[in-house]
Structure formats: structure tokens, C-alpha cells
């Protein structure tokens, strides 16, 4: 099935390359047509001034002008098609890179990394090569924030698994959605803009019917005065004076609020245009039928029309930069008055919903990323998330999502208020197995498929301590940092109904005997709390704590001419260690690749 995904992306990437080639070849033709038709238009106007028969040159000039406009429109559409083809090609090439194990072009999520988070730092949720880096395809800043929040939470969102699966099958929608923000993420944080726009003082009386009737009468009267002057029925001074009065009236009433509005939304036009595209895609192309999907669509019911109206208003505001055009349109048609009236009407009806719509697009954006991961990983399966007052974790053939086809899977079950001490040699797979438990649990809660033949879990808190570091800037030693992390763990567990703790070596920063005694003391303390734990250690003495609630498991290795790593977990205590063995081989210059497997473990070398 992985080959099927590869063929899909390869085929569609090639289609976009062919489309891009065809469209690019048309560009010089359109440019030639525009230049030619414009030159012909100017020439015919010139000819009409020196010939006796002016009708034919004028008619031909009109045709040339129409040809120029039509070619210009076609050229713009061709340019838009080229831009879309380039964006779609980037999407397909990005997915091909993902299938090949390259994630450099995707968002790393570095800004979300927090060493003090209960689990995200230890589970490689954020950063280069992280889980976020592998699955993030967001087109909006809000979508990235939502995705990061989802991966950092133990709230149960598994009910939307069907929606994610539905979006995973909507390949055309997903790729079109991703293409909108492939070059630059759309900024969906509109709160400050909405606040500034709402504070702009506008003369609301221009919405009232009497004022609008007077404005329409004035425009009509002015146009009639122009016609009368042309027919010699009145002096030219009347329409000139009338036009100046209309211009200064429009200028006086609208220049300040329109200038303030323009300053407030100066850099927003691109974002709003892209948001409008995303909204239209969601409404027209997503094809969602699940209750969760329909609920999202209902939030956007009025959004398409609101964005279309706002786009037209912003385009008119942009055109106000042409001073001559502004003078003519205000003098003739009171254009700015009607523009401000349209804006006030839009503001009163839609402005309060703008941030909510952007947030909804962000939610769909995050779901599209999750759906793309689901589509790209056909071997992943649907987890079973149950309601229970106890910790339930039952896995068959569980593996880490980073390890791909070479992963060695394991069966493992965790019972409520029990502790599992895992021993094993260096590089035998202990740390990777701990992360495998944690990351698959978070995936299950997010509504994502998991890397297991079957996974059944309940909902509980999660806290890990696997990657403690010192902080010399603040005078915090490694051992002190470990103590602070364990204190944070205890505080976290006090506020949770049930917590699974995952620890990779307790008190690594002290000597062996002190570490052993401290580890025993810590485990004896947390046994009295509503806590379940999985603890990896090199200290075989710690395994002697085994009782009906504390169980020993291990990752065993075989020592012969070389070291053999199985990456399979089994009951019991590890018998073989490899540090002295490998050091002796290193000193004799005999270490081989099989002795030092690829970092990450749990994959066949």
C-alpha cells in the first residue's frame, strides 16, 4: 500500500509538471497579443484623427481594445493557473520526500518545544525530525497552533477519527488545501486587526435611507447636468461646480475613516484572500459527512459571502491610490461614500465573526495535516479508546512511528496502579520503547491511527522524565534539574485522577548506591499515589523490588563474536550488558556496525 501512495504522488506530480510546461509556453503568446492589440488600438486612434472617415477606424479601434482586454484576462487566468500548478507540484514533491524519509521542507515546530512540558519534550513531539515535523502540512498559522496544542494534550479527541479518515480519502481536497499556504502560511491571528478596525469612527448616518436617497439624486442630477451641458442646454460651469461639490463632500465625509481602515488592513489583503480560498474549499470540496465535519461546516455558513464582500471592498480601497481616478469617481458617482457605506454594513453584520471563522479554518487545517499522515501511513490502525476510571493500555505489535518498515514490534500491557521496571543493555531499545508507548498514546487521543496491530487504551494523564538537562545559566546542575523534574512530576500527579509516568533512569546524576536508594524511595512514594509507571534502568538491583504490583521486563542481547540486538521485550531481568564488551572491542579496534546499531533502537540493523 505504501507503493500505492508513492505511485499516486508521482503520477500527480508529473501531471502538474506537464500542465506547468503547457501554461508557461502560453505566456509569451499572451504578452505578444497584449502588446500587438494595444499598438493597433493606438494606431487606429491616430489614423482616425487624420482620415475623413472616422467611423471605421473607431470601430476597429474598439475591437482592438476589446481584444486587448480579453487577452489580458486570459493572461491573468493563465498566470493564476501557473501559480496553482507550482503550488500543487510542491505539495506532491513534499509528500514524495516524506515517503523517502526527508522532512526538511516541513515546519519543525521549534517554537512549541518546552523542556518543562509533562511529556512533549521527551517524546520528540517538536523540533527537527520530530513528530510535528513529520506530520505538519498546515497552510495557516492558526492551523499550526491547533496541531501543536492537540499533540501536547491528553484530552480525548478520538471521536473525530472518522472525520480524519474521511479527509484522508479526500486527496484532491487535501492537496488543494495545502497548496494555498505552501509558499507562506496564512496569518489567521486577526484579533488585533479586528480590534483596530472596530475602533475606526465612521459616519453611520450615511447608511440611513434619507441620506442615500439624497446621494442617488445628487449623482443623477450631476449626470443630467453633464448631458445638458453637452447638448448646450446649460453652461459648463454648472456640472463643473456640481462635480467639485460632490468630490469635496465625499472627501470630507470619508477620507479620514477610509485612511484609518486602509492603515489597519494594509497587510491583510493577502491573508484574507487566502482565507477566502480556504473557506470556499472547505464548503465546496471537503465532502465531509461526519457529525464533527458538519459541525465545522455550519460554523462557516455565512463566511463565503462575507469574504467575497470584504474582498471587493478591499480591492476598491486599494484602487484609491490612483489620485486622478479617485477624483473622477468621487466627482461623478460619490464612490467613496458608497464604499464606506458598504464597509459599515459589512462591519455591522460580519466583523464579530471574522476571528471565529479564521479559528475554524485553523481547526480544519490541523485536521488536514492529521489526515495526510493517516493517508501516508496505511499500515497504521484505528485505536480503541475506552471510558474507564482506571489506566488501560493493551498493545499488540506496537512500534514507533519514526522507524518505518524496519521497526520491531512488541506486545505490552499496562495494568492500573502497577509498575514495570525495564532493564537491558545500552542501545538495546529501552528508551525507544518508552517513547513508543507515549507517542502512540498521544496519537490515539488525537484521533490518529496508531502504529500497532491493535491498541486499546483509556484516558489518563501522562508525565515523562527522560531527557533532563542542566541549566548552567541559572546555576542549575544536572542532579538539581532531575530533582526539579521529579518534583514537577509529583505536583502533576496530585492534580490528576490517574497518571502514567514514564521514566528513563531515575537520578542519573548521582553515584550508583545513592541512585539505587533514591530510586527505591521514589517508587515507594509514588506507589501510594494514583500512579502507574514504566521505568527503564541499567541498575539491576532495582529489579529486586519486584512484587505483585512491580513487574520486571527486559530487552536482552546476545554476546558472541558480535553483539546481537533483538529489540524484543520479554518478562524478566536482563542478564547481559554490553558496555565492557564494546569498550574492549573498541580498544582493540574491532567495533563493527552491528555492534552499534542506528540510534533509535527497535529497528533491525
Please explain how this structure is put together.
The chain is α/β, with parallel strands linked by helices and 605 residues long. 56% of the residues lie in helices and 10% in strands. It contains 19 helices and ten strands. The longest helix has 49 residues, at 2-50. Strands 6-7-8-4-9-10 form a six-stranded mixed β-sheet, sandwiched between helices. α2 crosses α6 (171-180), α9 (237-264) crosses α13 (323-333) and α10 (269-285) runs antiparallel to α12 (303-318).
In short:
The chain is an alpha/beta fold and 605 residues long. Helix content is 56%, strand content 10%.
Write the topology of this structure.
Elements: H1 2-50, H2 55-99, H3 131-135, H4 141-151, H5 161-169, H6 171-180, H7 191-199, H8 209-230, H9 237-264, H10 269-285, H11 291-299, H12 303-318, H13 323-333, H14 335-350, H15 354-376, E1 384-385, E2 392-398, E3 410-415, E4 419-424, H16 430-446, E5 454-457, E6 461-465, H17 478-494, E7 499-504, H18 512-526, E8 531-537, E9 550-559, E10 563-571, H19 579-587
Helix pairs in contact: 1-2, 2-6, 4-15, 5-15, 6-10, 6-15, 8-9, 9-13, 9-14, 10-12, 12-14
Q: Globular, elongated, flat, extended or rod-shaped: what is the shape?
A: elongated
List how many beta strands DSSP finds: 10
Sheet/helix structural class: alpha/beta
From the N-terminal CA to the C-terminal CA, the straight-line distance is 23 Å
**Could you tell me the strand content as a percent range?**
5-15%
- Helix percent reads 55-70%
Count every helix, treating DSSP H or I runs of 4 or more residues as helices: 19
Q: What composes the largest sheet?
A: 6 strands, mixed
Amino acid at each position: 500500500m505504501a507503493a500505492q501512495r508513492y505511485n499516486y504522488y508521482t503520477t500527480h506530480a508529473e501531471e502538474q509538471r506537464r500542465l506547468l510546461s503547457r501554461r508557461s509556453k502560453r505566456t509569451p503568446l499572451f504578452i505578444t497579443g497584449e502588446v500587438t492589440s494595444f499598438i493597433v488600438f493606438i494606431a487606429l486612434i491616430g489614423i482616425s484623427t487624420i482620415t475623413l472617415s472616422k467611423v471605421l477606424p473607431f470601430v476597429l479601434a474598439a475591437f482592438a481594445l476589446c481584444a486587448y482586454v480579453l487577452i489580458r484576462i486570459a493572461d491573468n487566468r493563465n498566470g493564476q493557473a501557473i501559480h496553482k500548478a507550482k503550488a500543487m507540484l510542491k505539495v506532491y514533491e513534499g509528500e514524495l520526500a516524506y515517503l523517502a524519509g526527508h522532512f526538511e521542507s516541513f515546519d519543525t515546530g521549534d517554537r512549541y518545544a518546552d523542556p518543562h512540558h509533562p511529556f512533549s519534550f521527551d517524546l520528540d513531539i517538536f523540533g527537527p525530525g520530530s513528530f510535528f515535523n513529520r506530520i505538519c502540512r498546515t497552510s495557516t498559522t492558526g492551523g499550526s497552533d491547533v496541531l501543536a496544542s492537540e499533540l501536547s494534550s491528553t484530552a480525548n479527541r478520538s471521536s473525530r477519527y472518522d472525520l480524519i479518515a474521511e479527509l484522508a480519502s479526500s486527496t484532491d481536497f487535501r492537496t488543494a488545501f495545502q497548496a494555498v499556504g505552501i509558499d507562506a502560511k496564512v496569518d489567521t491571528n486577526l484579533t488585533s486587526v479586528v480590534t483596530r478596525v472596530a475602533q475606526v469612527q465612521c459616519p453611520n448616518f450615511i447608511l440611513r435611507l434619507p441620506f442615500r436617497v439624497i446621494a442617488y439624486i445628487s449623482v443623477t442630477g450631476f449626470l443630467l447636468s453633464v448631458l445638458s451641458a453637452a447638448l448646450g442646454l446649460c453652461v459648463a460651469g454648472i456640472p463643473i461646480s456640481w462635480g467639485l461639490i460632490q468630490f469635496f463632500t465625499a472627501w470630507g465625509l470619508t477620507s479620514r475613516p477610509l485612511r484609518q481602515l486602509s492603515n489597519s488592513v494594509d497587510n491583510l489583503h493577502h491573508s484574507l484572500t487566502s482565507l477566502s480560498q480556504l473557506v470556499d474549499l472547505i464548503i465546496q470540496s471537503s465532502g465531509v459527512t461526519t457529525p464533527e465535519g458538519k459541525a465545522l461546516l455550519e460554523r462557516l455558513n455565512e463566511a463565503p459571502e462575507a469574504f467575497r464582500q470584504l474582498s471587493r471592498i478591499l480591492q476598491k480601497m486599494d484602487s484609491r491610490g490612483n489620485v486622478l481616478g479617485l477624483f473622477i469617481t468621487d466627482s461623478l458617482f460619490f464612490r467613496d461614500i458608497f464604499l464606506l457605506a458598504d464597509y459599515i454594513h459589512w462591519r455591522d453584520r460580519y466583523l464579530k465573526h471574522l476571528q471565529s471563522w479564521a479559528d475554524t479554518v485553523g481547526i480544519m487545517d490541523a485536521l488536514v495535516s492529521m489526515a495526510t499522515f493517516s493517508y501516508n501511513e496505511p499500515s497504521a490502525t484505528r485505536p480503541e479508546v475506552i471510558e474507564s476510571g482506571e489506566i488501560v493500555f493493551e498493545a499488540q505489535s506496537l512500534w514507533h512511528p519514526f522507524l518505518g518498515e524496519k521497526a520491531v514490534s512488541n506486545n505490552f500491557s499496562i495494568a492500573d496502579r502497577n509498575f514495570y521496571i525495564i532493564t537491558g543493555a545500552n542501545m538495546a531499545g529501552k528508551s525507544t520503547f518508552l517513547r513508543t508507548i507515549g507517542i502512540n498514546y498521544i496519537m490515539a487521543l488525537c484521533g490518529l491511527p496508531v502504529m500497532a496491530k491493535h491498541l486499546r487504551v483509556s484516558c489518563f494523564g501522562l508525565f515523562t522524565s527522560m531527557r533532563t538537562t542542566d541549566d548552567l545559566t541559572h546555576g542549575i546542575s544536572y542532579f538539581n534539574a532531575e530533582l526539579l523534574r521529579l518534583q514537577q512530576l509529583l505536583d502533576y500527579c496530585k492534580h490528576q485522577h490517574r497518571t502514567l509516568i514514564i521514566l528513563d533512569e531515575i537520578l542519573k546524576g548521582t553515584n550508583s548506591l545513592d541512585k539505587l536508594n533514591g530510586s527505591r524511595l521514589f517508587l515507594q512514594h509514588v506507589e501510594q499515589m494514583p500512579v502507574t509507571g514504566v521505568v527503564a534502568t541499567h541498575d539491576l538491583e532495582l529489579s529486586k523490588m519486584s512484587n505483585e504490583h512491580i513487574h520486571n521486563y527486559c530487552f536482552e542481547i546476545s554476546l558472541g563474536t558480535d553483539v546481537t540486538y533483538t529489540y524484543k521485550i520479554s518478562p524478566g531481568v536482563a542478564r547481559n550488558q554490553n558496555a565492557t564488551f564494546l569498550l574492549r572491542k573498541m580498544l582493540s579496534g574491532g567495533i563493527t556496525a552491528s555492534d552499534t546499531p542506528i540510534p533509535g533502537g527497535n529497528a533491525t540493523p
